[in-house]
Fold:
Amino acid sequence: MTRLLLPLAGLVVLAALPGFVSEYGLGLMIGAVTYVTLASAWALFSGYTRYISLATVAFYGTGAYVVAVLNEVLPYPLVLLVAALIGGAMALVVGLSTLRLAGVYFVIFTFGLSELVRQLITWYEVNVTGTLGRYIFLDISARGIYWQMLALAAVTIGLTAWIHRRPLGLALRVVGDDETVAAHSGINLARTKLIAFVLSSVILTLAGAIVSPRWVYVEPSIVFNPTVSFLTVIMALLGGANRLVGPALGAVPLFLTFEWLSANFPDTYSIFMGLLFIGVVFALPEGVLAGVDRLRARKLRAAA
Amino acid sequence: MLTTLILGLVLGGTYALLALGLTLQYGIARIMNLAYGELTLIAAFVVVAAFQAAGIPPLAALIAVVPAGYALGWVLYTVMMRPLVARSESRGRLEIDSILATFGLLFLIQGVLLVSFGANFTSISYLDRGVNVFGVSVALNRLIAFGICVVAAGALIWALARTRWGLVMRAVALTPGSAPLVGIDVNRVARQGFALGTALAAAGGVSVAMYQTFSATGGVVFTMKALVIVIMGGVGNVAGALIAGLALGLIETFVSTTIDPGLTMAATFLIFLIVLLWRPQGLFGRG
Structure:
């Protein structure tokens, strides 16, 4: 029972927080929760299967762009629905064409995907609609965005926990450990990977759609910023991509660090980011949580 | 039409050269290097800086830049990649680790380039006069860039196919597990393969600097194109990479002249998709 009550109590506290912080604090909280959502959704697919997706921003940016295009035509809930559907369809195309093959094809494809989507939208806007850049005028307060994003983060982590106990979760873990074994034990590899990838991509798209009113002005080069994909991967890895709360644990401190870095060292920011990333890959390949577990195990053995 | 063909071949030469380096790094050293385009850009920026500051012509810079690329690759492999190779038990593990590590390297190099050279688009005008080729006027700098690519790629293909050194390289590419049984030091060969790949990236960078406009954030596009070519030609297949590179250059020039220059990336991706769905082992099979 406490396993369920504790997270719920935490969620209530987090939801009540906006009443006590400044406008700037709220902005920071929205950013942090957004990255918790992104990193958790990324890990939902990549953490178990070890298929590294570098296309987070392709979905995130698509979500934001759908809102920019449709916010004056459709009511808000419908816009979100359309965004989710488009993100899901994109993921289906990418997944169907690459997930049947060796993992490296998937990585390469996702590596260029955001650049492709950005170029296509730019081309379409310039040649067909004749405008580059759109405005989002939605009557949604910063608090509203925070609550929506918090709900999405909670759903993402809840969904991960739920899948973990289902046959799908078991299948995903076997796929991540050894695909040959997985195939021999009767797991439908392509379908398993595809379901997880589509689920994760829909969440990423929704995150982009929800946060988009914060931008007001939207342009392909703004919303398809490759740094977002990069940050998401490093956050999930730092916390531990195959743990339930690992991505969230990595996201909050890293988001605050990067926020501070980009405010104080805007020029050398990406150098720090690269160094930190390489550091994580070398020193903590399984994440901080696994490191803590190892330390604890060593202590127990020493005590015995 | 003939103009498109010749310009496409010239562009394709640069792409083929870039892809050769990448296929060496992936095929022999087993490192999937996502920072490859950034290595190319380092060379391109150095050439431009040397030309603008000291008036050193790119052709002369080539003599210094390529060995420097080899040295950089050697250091990168020893310091960064070797520990990853040593700790990975399986090929899949190494693939993931190398992708992640070089993804970090990508942003590191990009940051250094941005700080040292700024975010603006750069180009130089060097030997920018027309030369008549089969009735088409082509800038001399493009022809020289193409010449560099043909010479470098030709030498590499000859060396891999005909020399003892090439035989050792191919042995490691084919079965790294059995190569030690016949007395091959796999670690040394992998390091050479990676360094040579970086040297080719540098040569590609010199050729890019001679006739293209580029910026510090554009490395991803080079990496992406080189990756698509490697997969089209078949992983580790040097001749396949050469043909696929020329083909991609042709297709891209064709798309940008007849449809829209903004859609070249889309064309690249479309080809990639078709190859993946139709022949994932590459058009010419594995090398």
Q: What stands out?
A: The radius of gyration of chain B is 18 Å. Residues 58-87 of chain B form the longest helix (30 residues).
